[in-house]
Every structure is written in structure tokens, then in C-alpha cells.
Specification:
Oligomer: homodimer
Largest sheet of chain A: 7 strands, mixed
Radius of gyration of chain A: 21 Å
Strand order of the largest sheet of chain A: 1-9-8-7-4-2-3
Helix content of chain A: 40-55%
Largest interface: A-B, 48 and 48 residues
CATH superfamily of the largest domain in chain A: Type I PLP-dependent aspartate aminotransferase-like (Major domain)
Order of helices and strands of chain A: HHEHEHEHEEEHEHEEHHHHEEHEEHH
Mean pLDDT of chain A: 97
Number of helices of chain A: 14
Low-confidence stretches of chain A: none
Number of strands of chain A: 13
Number of domains of chain A: 2
Chain lengths: 368, 368
């Protein structure tokens, strides 16, 4: 997190039923709009991203409603679990880990289940480091007149999001990735169609009632329940930093970090898990047979102090995921890749030492 | 908030799937137990107190279940709204604002609605600055074999809580009051009976599924979903400070602050809203007819920089609520009461200047 944000959150806390808090809440909500690519109201919730995902499910669909969801990884799978938990009928579009869903798959699923009212997908599936083509899925959803719900947890603030243009009806994100904040704050925006669906919705809800929150935040400049005050102050500061940098530069910076990391992985003889639709926020590198990435991740984190993630579920022990979202520059990828090289060496993998770092440097050179 | 806590939360954030985070999570959860007065596991949730209240409702009761709730103020009323929202049948025990519920009222309600499975009450009703007799309500609940759910949001860390001894089956609190943290972290503990009920529960839930969280936090030393990392680090530090002070001293400090504030209010000719069962964490003073407390609160906050609250709902414009929870000492009540005197004068109320501050000083003198 940027020191400016840490300091902002370390300010003495003010009460949330004050004009002073209202001014910050209004400003933070307004500043979120360009990151979502929307003119709709952005609603803040005191919850992690999963709470915001749940809010989109229980405010747009009612028990018994059918929905199609894209399961291309751990977070896609979560849509299905959530829908089922709340009594909806969830139709899965299964996608191989690391692949993007093809819009035709969505179309086919909607044809097979014409009673479906919504499609749920990730803009960026963090567990597989792949992105899904939301713009094209939006076209399918419009054509078949169903709602489109998108998890933007690792896409908002990383690459350009066009909620309104893509026809997204509920767009969800969380504070802890590219927004450079601790976890604990969720954000949701609804399209006009999304708002209509939410107004008619009859799923039991209280804490995550988006219509109640929208009324409080838009009309009364406060929140329905006690807000995560320090995180909202931090968010407002984070957004100020991002907007001052300008979003095109923020997105270009992420793009260079992603390409540098991918090119380094390839130079080291590793495979990309998502070669065709890699996420700009996180890169997944598959280690060769016999190399345990759990060991590499632990060594990088505990011995070298460089935090990366391993694989989840079926990719456990096989994947190294290098996050490059938020308060990082392409030069930081020199550190990440250098530590990766050390980790690979530690795990017994043989390669041309320095090949990864050289690739990062080459990519940076092309960007300046 | 104490500077130690602010600094703790301003540390660089660490990933939540690490042994380092697990150690802090375990310690914070363990340190919460004496504040709850329990040997049960304390479950942390990334939500405000309302989210934790909702968790207790949807994990213990199923749609169609009957329950009795005490409505003695805004937060008691919230139990009723929540129960109804999730399809439970809520039987209200109405209590005049500022009064404590009498245990016989609970007994009568349970006799009138013998199908009831639980009683919901506040240990301290923040909106009316009154406490309810949880120990005695616990006896009634045991005798009639119903669950007891208690909102401890302004009681935990303020005065002694004996969850196990009182027979509380779900005990709920939040981070932003006596725990000296920003809002955004909820805590719930369940008794063995509460756990049994939760295991059999069939209310649809996902984000606030306490059994899933308990399994993750107790067995895997992590959380089911992304936790509010910075708040958990802050909590661990806050609890360290409170336990170092020792809980008896923490409670005595709150008691002196409460008595000093009440005695000051009386010396100024104001009335206590809750004379018979005043809350140790917040004192409510009723202004004489014709004096608008909204004006006083605004003046104290915006001109004098002393944050107090007005009345809510039916007490709007009639009440000044002075919070004395958390990182405050009895000497701080000199400031609060001095500012109150200035506010009363500003609002046109006539009184013996200095009478309030003198009363605070007298009460402090008796405590040292």
C-alpha cells in the first residue's frame, strides 16, 4: 500500500454520522465511477469481495431463478456455490483452467437453459490468471435479454473496465487488490436493468440489501449500517493517487508489468497457464514436472521476503502466481523475477541464470 | 484510537494465506475470550456489527422459526426487522426507551409464544444508553429451554461479560466501540447449544456461514474468505493493550467515566434517559423542553471539536449522548462536560456555569 494511503487510514477516526464523513463517502463513490467505466452509482459495503459477490446474487436473483455461471477457476466455482446456497438453479459453463470462456459457450448454455435470468462471470479469474471476454459476453447477454453479473475483483484498477458500454448489470469489486487497500471494503454498481431487478427481488436479505444501501448512500450521504470508515478514507486517497496518475497510465503500467513477467517466465523455460488470455493483474507460471512450487513460494516468501502465491486446488504445487496489481512499478518485477530465479534454483530446477531478469529488463526498455 | 493501534494498522499489509497471518489471527481470537467471558471459539467476520448480528440470526434460526426479541431502542428494533427479513416469526417485547427489560416480560412472552426457539436482546442498547439484565434473562432462557442471543456491541470491553456463566448461546460484537478500532470487523461466539443449532440450521447463507468460518479459523488457522487483515492486526494490538491494563481496571475506568458523566448531567439540571439501568459505555442526557440538542451536538462537534451524538428516532433533538468507551480516561470527561456546558449555553439553556465540570472532578477525586 502507498504510504499516503497508510497515513490517511492512520488519521484519528471520525464518526460516520457527520457531514465530514459524508463528504468523503460522496467523493470516494464518485471517484470509483471511471474505474468501473460507469455513470451508475457505486455502492460501498463493509465486507470483503465475497460479500459484494453475494450482494449481487441475492439482490438480482430470487430463489428458484435459473442462472448460467462460468466456472473457469476457484472464483467462478464460487458463483455456483453461492447461487446454489441461496436456492437458485445454477447451470455451469465449465472452462479449462487458464482458458477464457468462449462467448458461444455462454450462448449455448442460455439456449439449453432458456429460463435463465442471468450470467455470472469473472472479468479476471485470479486462480487461473486468465481473463474472460466480458464485452462479447455482454453482447450475448443483451441479445438473449439476461442480466450480466461480473466479478471485477482483479480487473478494476488493473485494465480498462467499461461497465456501461459492455452492458454489465452488476459489477463487483473489493478493496484489497489494485485499489491498494487492506481487505474489508466491497463495491457494487448496478445498471438500470440491475436496479429494476433489485427492486423486485424477493430473496431474504438485510445487511447486504443494496436498495437500502443505495438509498442511504445516494440520498442521505451516509450508509445504512456502520461503514468501514478508515477503509473509505483510504479508498478516497487511493483513488486520488490513481486518478492523478491518470487511468491510461495506470493501465499501461500494469500491462508492462504483466508482459515483463510473462516474458521472464518463458525465458526461464516455464509455461504460462493462460497463454491465450493472460490476466494483466497476475501471471501464472507452471513449473516443470517434478518441481514443487509450494516449496518455491515458501522459500520466496519466508527466506527472501518476496510474496507470491502458489496454485489453488488442482494446481496446488504446480503453479507460481506473481501478482502485479496496485502500488508496484515494472522495476519491481526485477525483484519478483530475481527472487523467482532463486526459488527455482532452490527447488532444483536448472536454467540459464539471469534469463528472467534480462527479459524483464528488455520489456521495460521497450516501454521507456 | 490508541497510537499503538493506528501504527499497527499502518504496517505493510501481509497476505492472509501465510503462517504469519495465522499466528496473529489465532492470538487475536484467543485474546477476545476473556472480554466475552467465554471458553468458546470467537469467530471473526469482515463486516460491521450488523453483519455479526445477522450472522447470529441466520445461523441459529431457520425460516418459520419463532423468536422473542426485546425492542427497547433502535438496535432492539433491528433484531425484529432482521428476524422478519429472513422469514422468522418475531414476537416483540416492547420496552420504554431508557428502561431495562424485566426478566418477567421475557418469561411472559415465552409463555405466550411457547413455540419460540430463541430470545434476542442487547446487553447495552446504545440508542437509549440503557443496559438489559442479561444474567437474569439467561436464567429464564435456560428454564424455558430457548436459545439466548446477545448483542454486546457496546458492552464487550466496557463492563464484565460472562457469556458462559450467563448462558448466552450467541454473543456478538463489533470492532468500533470499546475495542478501539475502526468499524469493519465483527465477532461472534457460539455456545455448545448454539453450535448444535448452527449445525442443523437451514437458512440460506454463504458469506456469513459461521460453521464454515469456525472450521477455517479453528482448524485451518485462516478465514473462509479474505479477512479484514489490517483490522485483525489492529484488534490483536488493542487486545494486548486492554489485557495489559487488566480487564478489572478497564471496567473500573469505564465505570468512573460513566458515573462522572451522569453526575455532571444531574448537576447541570439535565435528566438521565436511563436512570435505573444506565449503560457504562454511553450516557444519555435529556435536555429541558425547548432546548434543541441537535444544535448542541452540532456546535460541540463542529465548533468545539468534541464528538458526541444526538438522539435517534423518537429522541431526535431531545437527547445528548456522550460516549465513554475505549481509549479515554475519566479526565477526558472534563473536556466532554466542559464542551457540553458550552453547548448548553449556546443553545440558550441557563445553569450554574462549571457545575458539570465540578461534578466530574468530584467523582474522579473519589476514585483516586
Amino acid at each position: 500500500m502507498p504510504p499516503e494511503v497508510l497515513l490517511e487510514m492512520a488519521q484519528p477516526i471520525i464518526h460516520h454520522r457527520t457531514p465530514q464523513f459524508s463528504a468523503t463517502l460522496d467523493q470516494a463513490r464518485e471517484r470509483m465511477k471511471p474505474l468501473f467505466g460507469t455513470r451508475q452509482e457505486v455502492i460501498l459495503i463493509a465486507s470483503s469481495g465475497t460479500g459484494a459477490m453475494e450482494a449481487s446474487v441475492i439482490n438480482l436473483l430470487s430463489p428458484g431463478d435459473h442462472a448460467v455461471f462460468v466456472n473457469g477457476g476457484k472464483f467462478g466455482e464460487r458463483w455456483g456455490k453461492m447461487l446454489t446456497a441461496f436456492g437458485m438453479v445454477a447451470h455451469e459453463v465449465k472452462v479449462e483452467w487458464g482458458r477464457a470462456v468462449r462467448p458461444e459457450q455462454i450462448e449455448d448454455a442460455l439456449k439449453a437453459h432458456p429460463e435463465s435470468k442471468a450470467v455470472f462471470v469473472q472479468a479476471s479469474e485470479t486462480s487461473t490468471c486468465a481473463i474472460h471476454p466480458v464485452a462479447q459476453i455482454g453482447e450475448v447477454a443483451r441479445r438473449r435479454d439476461v442480466l450480466l453479473v461480473v466479478d471485477g475483483i482483479t480487473s478494476v484498477g488493473v485494465f480498462e473496465q467499461k461497465m456501461d458500454e459492455w452492458g454489465v448489470d452488476a459489477f463487483v469489486t473489493g478493496s484489497q487488490k489494485a485499489l491498494m487497500l487492506p481487505p474489508g471494503l466491497g463495491m457494487v454498481a448496478l445498471s438500470d436493468r440491475g436496479l429494476e431487478a433489485a427492486k423486485k427481488n424477493r430473496t431474504p436479505k438485510f445487511y447486504l440489501d443494496l436498495m437500502k444501501e443505495l438509498k442511504a448512500q445516494r440520498d442521505e450521504h451516509t450508509t445504512a449500517f456502520t461503514p468501514a470508515v478508515s477503509l473509505i478514507f483510504g479508498l478516497n486517497k487511493s483513488l486520488e493517487l490513481l486518478l492523478n496518475e491518470t487511468l491510461p497510465r495506470v493501465f499501461a503500467r500494469h500491462q508492462v508489468m504483466a508482459e515483463a513477467t510473462r516474458e521472464a517466465g518463458i525465458a526461464l523455460g516455464l509455461k504460462l497457464i493462460a497463454p491465450d488470455s493472460p490476466a494483466p493483474g497476475v501471471t501464472g507460471l507452471i513449473a516443470p514436472e517434478g518441481i514443487d512450487t509450494g516449496k518455491i513460494v515458501k522459500y520466496m516468501r519466508d527466506t527472501l521476503g518476496v510474496a507470491v502465491q502458489g496454485g489453488q486446488d488442482q494446481m496446488k504445487g504446480r503453479l507460481v502466481r506473481i501478482g502485479h496489481m496496485g502500488n508496484l512499478t515494472p522495476f519491481d518485477m526485477l525483484i519478483a523475477v530475481s527472487a523467482l530465479e532463486a526459488g527455482l534454483r532452490f527447488a532444483g530446477y536448472e536454467f540459464a541464470s539471469g534469463a528472467g531478469v534480462t527479459a524483464v529488463q528488455a520489456r521495460i526498455a521497450r516501454s521507456i
